[in-house]
Amino acid sequence: MRFSLGKLVVLAAVAGLVAVGWTKHEHRVHEQRSLAAIASEIAGRPVGVHCPNFFTKLVNVSGEAGQVKFDDEGRPANYTDLSPQTCDELAKFKRIDFSCLDTHTCGDTQFQAAWAAHTLAHESFHLKGYEDEGVTECYAMQTTAFVAEQLGMSADRAEELQHWVWAKGYRNEPTDYQSSNCYPDGPLDLHPGSTNWP
Predict the structure, then answer these.
(1) Is the CB of residue 11 less than 8 Å from the CB of residue 27?
(2) One-character DSSP codes across 98-151
(3) Closest by CA position to 46, among listed 69, 3, 76
(4) Tell me, what's the pLDDT at 30?
(5) Residues 38 and 66 sit within 8 Å (Cβ to Cβ)
(6) What is the side-by-side order of every strand in the sheet holding 48-50?
(7) Which residues of the chain fall short of a pLDDT of 50?
(8) pTM here?
(9) Per residue in 145-182, pLDDT tens?
(10) b/e string for 143-155 if b means 16 or more Cβ within 10 A?
């Protein structure tokens, strides 16, 4: 069977696109497994993390950084759906330079990556069974450092990042994401008696 040069070029292009698509798919699956391991640790049970594929990204209009569905009896799903931006930020987290935390000069690039780590913590607490956004957010604020560490950040730097996310992010959140019980030694303090808040 003979192919014209034009057909060979088209076949080569299609084969190339399939190869690139497969590589991206494999990378996404690997990322999801890594993120699911972190989420499972927080949730206290095996859970999944879903990042959208190329086609889902094209039609995503949700605007939410992540979500967990609850059934009518208040039971959470076994997975979270993260937004394209959250997944992209988590994928490049290790490559972000956070040395600006030393000089308090971090900008939007660092905050978006830090907030993605925080979002994974937040959705993980939903997966643990907490439906109330204020409670979930308070716990997540105290667990952002854990997620950052699991993503490859040093423990000290992760603590700095957590304090920064609290100072920059929490006060600017909608009221339903805030709780009057979220304060040092308060009812939602995961480490009462500690001098390190959050």
Answers:
(1) no
(2) -GGGGTT---HHHHHHHHHHHHHHHHHHHHHT---HHHHHHHHHTTHHHHHHHT
(3) 76
(4) 80
(5) no
(6) 48-50, 79-82, 66-67
(7) 15-22, 25
(8) 0.85
(9) 999 999 999 999 999 999 999 999 999 999 999 999 99
(10) bbbbbbbbbebee
